[in-house]
Specification:
The chain contains ten helices and four strands, in the order H-E-H-H-E-H-H-E-H-H-E-H-H-H. By secondary structure, the chain is mainly alpha-helical.
Length: 198
């Protein structure tokens, strides 16, 4: 499966790299990622995918950056493990890219993540804010959990109108009535069959 996904990535990049300069536009990058791995990302991360071009000069995205992003998505379980352990061992509960890379190299046999992959992880975890160098575990939530939504979005969806006693009573009576009709219909359909058996 890993080889198939890698080939799909190469073919998609080649398709969008029409002038063969080794770069694609941020919108094309977003199309590739949402097609290959959109189900593994939260909505805020998907919306900010085009901002990856800010990590390198030129406002375009190279194949190595696309490959690094796919590697981060593929190894998201390991990313989460390293982040959780590194933040728990940090004095202030926060880590920066160097802490992440050092802990990753120390906790595994081989360094799993390149500096480019660490830069991608911290870019999306900090929501593109260059002032945030040291991040806490909670800051990584939008990258680690595909179901993550901002607290403002969650509050807006959880506001439900309160039902009064009469609304609940009439809803229960309605459901009871429908159940009675369905039960009577079922019994009426089965009764002739029971008569034939006797």
């Amino acid at each position: 499966m890993k080889g198939l996904q890698g080939e799909r990535l190469r073919q998609a990049f080649k398709y969008f790299d029409t002038n063969e300069d080794g770069f694609i536009t941020p919108e094309q990058f977003k199309m590739i990622i949402t097609d290959l791995a959109g189900h593994k990302l939260s909505e805020p991360v998907i919306e900010r995918l085009p901002t990856l071009c800010t990590l390198s000069p030129g406002q375009k995205i190279s194949f190595s950056e696309v490959q690094a992003f796919i590697n981060v998505i593929r190894d998201m379980d390991m990313v989460e493990r390293v982040i959780r352990e590194a933040t728990s061992k940090s004095k202030d509960g926060r880590i920066d890219q160097t802490d992440f890379l050092n802990y990753s190299a120390a906790s595994t046999r081989y360094g799993l993540f390149s500096p480019m992959e660490a830069a991608i992880i911290f870019h999306f975890a900090s929501r593109g804010d260059p002032a945030q160098q040291r991040l806490a575990l909670l800051d990584f939530a939008n990258l680690l959990d595909p179901r993550w939504r901002s607290p403002a979005d969650v509050e807006a969806t959880h506001v439900k109108p309160q039902k009064g006693f009469l609304d609940s009573f009439f809803q229960s009576a309605y459901n009871f009535g429908l159940g009675g009709i369905a039960g009577g219909f079922g019994a009426g359909m089965v009764y002739p069959i029971d008569l034939v058996k006797v």
